[in-house]
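CHAIN AND CONFORMATION:

***
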Amino acid sequence: MKFYRSVFLNFNFVLFFFTFLLFSSCDSPNHKNGSDPSQSNTGSSTSAPSNGMELKTFEVKDSKGISQGWGYDIYVNGKKIIHQPIMPAVPGNNSFKTENDAQKVGSFAVDKMLREGALPTILIKELDSLGVLK
């Protein structure tokens, strides 16, 4: 019975992995070139060409075009993999207050991805140590 359970678990993992790859490789037909009509991409860009990762900050605007703060996107080989318009780990839907704050946390997330080899989880204590929570 253990053999069948092991085969079933391995099959589920393989199925999940290929499903994740399939959906992560699909682009949204609604937004061309990764643009979002509620956001302006007037922010800065920091790239790390050696690993194909790029960080871009953007200004978050509401439906009336009023600035709500800043966010960041992380691209790998030109493909957006993280869209972060709000501060992670903080209750509510609050954007970063400054572009510099979004840049610091985005850079920290990129570094964490490179160290751990997976999508990062940003903790509130890490935001505090970066000086983003004021």
